[in-house]
Give the backbone structure.
Amino acid sequence: MAIKEVSEEKVREIARRWGGREGFLVEMLQDVQTEYRYIPEAAIRTLSKEVGVPVGQIYHLATFFKRFSLKPRGEHVVSVCTGTACHVKGAPRVLDACARELGIGVGETTRDGKFTLEEVRCLGCCGLAAVVTVNDDIHGHVTTSKVPRLLKRYKGTEKASHGEADDQ
Amino acid sequence: MPYRLHMMVCAGTGCVSNRSLELRDALSAELARRGLDKEIEIVTTGCNGFCGVGPILLVQPDGIFYQKVQVKDVPLLVEEHLVKGRPVKSLMFTPPEAKEPVPRMRDIPFFGKQMLVALRNRGMIDPEKIEDYIARGGYQALAKALTTMTPKQIIEEIKASGLRGRGGGGFPTGIKWETCVHAHSEDGVRYLVCNADEGDPGAFMDRSIIEGDPHSVIEGMVIGAYAIGAHQGYIYVRHEYPLALKRFMIALDQAREYGLLGKDILGTGFDFDIEVHRGAGAFVCGESTALMASIEGRVGEPRAKYIHTVEVGLYNKPTVLNNVETFANVPVIIERGAKWFASIGTEHSKGTKVFSLAGRVKNTGLVEVPMGLSLRELIFDIGGGIADNGKFKAVQTGGPSGGFLPEDLLDLPVDYEKLYEAGSMMGSGGVVVMDHTSCMVDVARFFVDFLQSESCGKCTPCREGIKAMHGILSRICDGKGSEADLATLEELCSVVADTSLCALGGSAPNPVLTSLRYFRSEYEAHLQGKCPAGVCRALITFRINDKCTGCHLCFKACPTSAVLGEPKQMHSIIQGKCIKCGACYDVCKFEAVTKE
Ligand SMILES: Cc1cc2nc3c(=O)[nH]c(=O)nc-3n(C[C@H](O)[C@H](O)[C@H](O)COP(=O)(O)O)c2cc1C
Ligand code: FES
C-alpha cells in the first residue's frame, strides 16, 4: 500500500482539533501516527509552527514514546505481548515464530509495506496469555504452532509476497 | 419495563476477544425471533474477572453462571433455560476437583472468597449507561459529600478509613489530600490527576475498573476534587487500552449531561471537569513527575523529588495524583463510612485489593479480596492452583519493582508491610504465578530487560547500571557466567537502588535480589551449564525418545526442517539445524519430545 502524501492542511486540522495546546502535543502526535502510520518530518514542522514550540521538542516526544515511529509502518501491525504473564507462557518463542513467518525482525516492516512486527509490554488481558494483536484484533492463547495460520488471515487481500504458503 | 430475566453478557476485553459481542448479537436475534425480547433484557457488562473461561454469560436474578458460551449454543440455551426454565448444565463451570458443574456464580470458589468494594458493580451494570450506575446507588456518595460534608470532613473520613494508594507506593490517601490542601498556591489553583497508565506488564486491574465501571472513578475524582478544592482534573490513560478510553469518554459525557461534572455540580456551585490524556507507551510515565511532564506536553522524564508533587506538581501547582483503584474506593468510604472500611483488612492495610491473577495458574483473571488474605488462598483457593498439573515454583508480585516469592512464603498474608519485608511489594496488584516451566534467572533477566528499555536515560545509575545487570544475567543464561558474576550482580543492585533518580531505578534490583535470595540454586545450576526449567536456549537440547508414534506433527511444525522421519516411524532431530524454538515440544501429544 502506498504511503499517504503528507498534507499540511490535515496536520493543521489535527493541531486545531486539540486547540493548538502544548499540553496536547502527545495527542496530536497520536493522531498524526494514526493518519500516516508514522510521524513524517513535514508534520513535525507543521506542528511546531502551529503550537509554537521548537522542532526539537517534538522530535524528543516522537522518539521517546514507543507508539511513535519516524519510519512508515506496515498496513498491519503485529504486536506480540511480551509482558510478564505472556513471557511465562512462551511469548519469546511466539515472537520468534512471527519474525520467522514474516521474514523480518522486531521493529521492522516487510518490504511490501504490509506488516510491521512489534513487541508490546502487556495489553492488559493477561488472562489470555500469550497474546498477539494484529491491528485492533486481540488473539489469545497463541502458541508457536498457531502463528502461521493466524498471520495468514491478514495476508489475504493481496497475494502474500514472502514466506511460504503455510501448512495447517 | 419489568423484565423477567436479565442476560448479562461480559464485554471485558478478554471476553470480547473470545467473541462475546457476536454472542450477544446472536442472543438478541434469537430472543427477538421467539418474541422474548419484551420479557428478557440483554445487558452488556464490563469484565467479570474470570477471563480464562470467557465468553461469560450470567442470568439474573437467579445468578446462573455460564462459561465458554459459543454462538452455536444460543438456540439450546434459549430453549432450555429461558423457555423451559431448565438451566443448561453443559455450559456451566466445573471447578477442578468437583464432579458436578456449579450453577450459581457465588458458589464457584473463584468468586466465593472475593469481596467486592472497588469492583462493587462488576458484571452488574452496562458501563456505557449512567442510569445503571445510578440505579446501583452510584453518585449518592457524591451528593452526600457535596451537600452534607465540608472538604475537611471528607479528608478526615478518608484518613480515618486508612485507605492507602493502590498504585504502588501505598501512601495514605487522606494525608496526601491534606498535604495538598495545606500546600501554598498563589492563585489557589490545585489539580487532581488520575493515574491510569498501568504500566506493570502483567496487571490489568485499572483497565477492568475503567472498562467495567467508569463512573466509580469519575465519582471518586469529583469527591477528591471537592475535598482539595480543585476545579480541573486529568486522567492519563495508556493508549494500549482503547476500550477503556472509549468507555471513559462516554461516561464523562453522560456525567456532564446529568450535571455531575462540569459547572455547578448538583446545583451546589462547585465546578470541576476532567480532561483525558493518552499515554503513548512509556512505563516511566506512570511515575508522578514524569506523568505530569507528559501532560504538559513534555517528555516523560522524572525529576528529583526534594519537593513533592502535592506541593509543586502539574504546571507547578499543588497536585494530587491517585491511582484508578484508589479513586474507585472513595465513594464507598463516603457512603458506608470510614469505620466500616477500616474494619476490613489488616492493622496497617485496610480495605480490599484488586489483584490480577495471571501466569501458570488455573483460573486467571481479576479478583478482589480483603487485605491480609494469604498468597496460598489467593493462588490455590481462588486461582484453583497450578495449570496443567504443574508444580508451584514462585509468585511474582508488584511487577518490575517487586520480587519473586517462593513456596515457603505462601502463607504470607498479603499486605503492604508483609510483602515489603519479604523483598517484594504490593505494587499495583499484578500477581504472576510461575511453575516448574519457568526459569528464575530467565524471568529476572526478563524484568531487567524490560526496565532497561523503559529507563528514560536521564540518570546514569539507572541507565548504565541496569544495562550492566542485564549483561551479566544474559551471560548467565547463556551458560557463560561465573561465581564472580553473582557477587558483581549483588553489588550493582545496591548501587542502582541507592543512587537512581526515581523509583524505577530504585526498585529495579528487586526481581534480581529476590531471585538470588530465594532461588540461588538455579543461578548455580546455570553456572554449571544447566537450566533446570529447560528455558535458556543455550543450555538445552531437544530430543525425540521412543514414545514417538511417528504421528508426524512435529515434522510439520518444525520451521527449519530439523525433524527427520517418515510417518508412522520414529522421528529424530538434527541438532545442527535445531533453533530450539520448541514447536515440536508444544505439538507432541505423546511426551516423546524431551528437553534437557
Ligand atoms: C516507574 C514507575 C511507574 C509507575 N507506574 C504507575 C502506574 O502505572 N499506575 C499507578 O497508579 N501508579 C504508578 N506508579 C506510582 C505513581 O508514581 C504514584 O505513586 C501513584 O500513582 C499514586 O497514586 P496512589 O497514591 O493512589 O497509589 C509508578 C511509579 C513508578 C516509579
Ligand atoms: S502480559 Fe501479555 S497481556 Fe498482560
Remarks:
- The CA atoms of residues 1 and 113 of chain A lie 6 Å apart.
- The first strand of chain A starts at residue 76 and ends at 81.
- Confidence is low (pLDDT under 50) at residues 158-168 of chain A.
